[in-house]
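Action item from last week, closing it out:
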Amino acid sequence: MRELIERPAILPAMGGYDALSARLVEQAGGEVVYMSGSSVSTSVHGFPDVGLTTMTEMVDRARGMAGVGAFDLLGQENPDVRLHLFNDCGHLPYREHPAAFSRLVTGFADRRG
């Protein structure tokens, strides 16, 4: 993962919403796949992100995508990595859940020394 990020070239990231879409990105030659709340919501409920998707659905989809071949890099290189989700959150968790976000960032910084 570090090698991908540190390359001088642009690193395109293709969007996915489940293990199958991650596999298709991998087969198309993609090196990075990302998941968004809107893509998961649309694939599960047929509607954009309007608050229907549960945290459990998001976690299940993220776990499925993380286990796909080349995209398991993060877990392989960082065995202590943790997935953090802020429920009912838009794109600004530091504003919508400031206390939880602050604890998360402080804890991460403390572990890094």
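Closing note: The chain has a mean pLDDT of 75.
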